[in-house]
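ARCHIVE CARD
Drawer: 12
Card no.: 0347
Subject: one protein chain, sequence and derived structure
Cross-reference: see card 0346
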Amino acid sequence: MKNWLITLLCFCFFALGFGELNAQIGRIKIRPDVDTTYVCPDSSITLEVTGGFNYSWSPANILNRSNGNVVVAKPTQNTRIFVEGFVNGQLRRDTITLVVVRPQLQLIALNATSVCRGTPVLLRAVNNAGGQGITWDPVEGLNNPNAANVIALPENTTTYRAELDITGCKIDATITVTIAPQKIDITNGDTVKVCKGATKVKLAATTNTGQSTGVTWTAKDRSITRQNVLSIDVEPKITTTYYVTLVATPCTIVDSVVIKVDSLPTQTITIDPKKEVYCFGEIITLKSDTYETAAYPDIKHMWRPRFRADGSTPGYDFQTPDTLWNMVMGTIDSVVLIRDTRNNGCIDSAAIFVPVIKPKTITITPEPAEVCPGGSIRLNADFAGNFDKITWTPTVGLSCTDCKNPNVTPGQTTTYSIMVEEKECPSNASKTVTVLPRAAILFPNLRTVCQGGSIQLNGASQSGVTYRWTQGGNVISTDPLHRVTPTATTTYRLEATDVVKGCNNSGDITINVVPTVNSVDINGVTVCSNDRNRTPLSIRLNQSPGTVPALFETYNWQIAGSSVSNATTYSINSLSQNTLVNVTYTYGVVGGATCGRLTDTATVKVIQMPTENGIFFAPDSVGTRGAQEGDPLTAGILLVQPQPPVAVTYNWTINGNNPGNNANPTIVTVASPGAMTFKVVVTGPNGCALTKEITINVVPASVTIPNAFSPNGDGANDIFRPVTNNKNIRLVELKVFNRWGKMVYNGNTGWNGNVGGNPAPVDVYIYNMVIEFPGGRRETRSGDVALLR
């Protein structure tokens, strides 16, 4: 802060007038945005309107055009300009007054023009253009270089010039503000930044006289007062403003400086998570205690690594910006990381060492690692440095999983991986152990031949490999592509010796021989025409080929030259007459040769039998609705004879029993209660038979004796007699007695309630009756019955 007076004069200026606010929604507006503007004689002014469309200007005699949004006016006298335009479909108007004048200008001061440094001077440009078009220079020390009334606060004596420009007609004037020569400045600047706890700060001042007379140092907190010296030492504990005052009549001049005292938060850095060492690629956080950002608004940070002794930079991987208080990073190398922190005048650095175990370089030998099938090889892992644990995977085929040099016996080509851990930090490597192929042997997939056929036993011949064939312990060939013609199923052994890699091979191959079939035979067969579950036709071979691998057998059954089946057997259920059947049997090797094809013919003899149309009854209703106990029944079977007819016999049973007349086409019997199953076996020529049976339901006979009757002639319950469900039940005798033992009825048709031709009185009567059931069985029933009227 530079020279200023203890007493600051404040001047308030009020504008002489304000233009009408024209920026309203839904209105048009002329620019310049004033009610009145000034024009120099014989000059023109450009006017612009905004806010609408379809403008119309007037008066037209001083305008270059009467429409459009921009026009040029050249008035010869004071004139009011009008413009109309449409806004949202409504007509709007704006006006401006043009005053024709020649510019007049005079500069005056409203207070003294000779002042002490730092005292404001009020300057006014008196003009006849309403303050429009005024420009002041120089602009230094002025509050507004384009106003008619300005405040000037120059450092030194200054002559100000003002120019009035009315549409190109210009006039200017000057005025000088004289500043007293007394001057004092603090050389430290406006602000000095220091860190809390720092050494003393020296403040120094200069005067235009070079003398310290009249100089006084003070502090805002009143901690010091020193006079007649140009420099002082201070030790502020907090931010403090210091003043230096020069008293030289008639002026008192003051300069000031602010000493800003700053501090830093605690700089200690820790690592999260906290560990003795860190593995390569871990994500860690370098952090310090959290501070209130409002207490350190200007604080800044920068992270950097410390260079190695050889000048190289260790590896690191910042995950967050290097300007933050805390740092998230990925580990690469052991590194010292430094955080530089600045808070204005405070600068400090904090460092932390991040110990990192880098992955080990592991070499696994031998190279290449190759073994024959079933063989072993030793893997040697070589690496530098310490380790806590070794783990090999996969474990299959390893002699040990936690040693440096295991023996491996892989079943197939396998990649073995080693993990070496130092303080839980893993290092990894792998080695593929290749299982070499054995000496080439390629036995054929098809290993079956027909009797007398030949076959090549091996399809591989490899350079550097010797071959030896044996059979039954005897060497039979050294040709790798040896061919044989076995007469029976035979096993051969091949030994292949690899003279280069030593990966020998051997194997046995069995060649199956299909026996020769010389004949095929179909057994002739006789069947009944009504049999629909006949034994299928099959063939009989003189020599079965057995279960030789890859054997195929096909059958082609034909009737009258047409193929009817390809199954092993032929169903003859559908044959209705004597038929000649032919079969062709073919056998051989699947994917190989056909060993043979044989044929045979046989006759299927069909014995004709009648066809049945079911068992019938007389009466007809018995077959559908059943019968009542004691009903006479006649049952028979309906047959349709072939042509010519054939002789048949009958054998009937009822519920599995012989009814006595069972050898006839029909039988007669009496219905017995319950289910009755009628079965007939019809036997024809050659023992052919047909069977038919049917079951009917016979309702058992039952009797109910009423305990009351009402002989009133209404047709309901007028007669006292047994109620039965069977027409074959007969009332043999009925006797009715009154309460005094006198018989009032004796008969077998039922009592009508009369005694001697007259109605018997209402009372309870005693009865005794004899009932005869189907088959002649009789029962005696007695009891009482109520006569009701």
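Annotation on reverse: Residues 1-24 have pLDDT under 50 and may be disordered. Residues 622-625 form the longest helix (4 residues).
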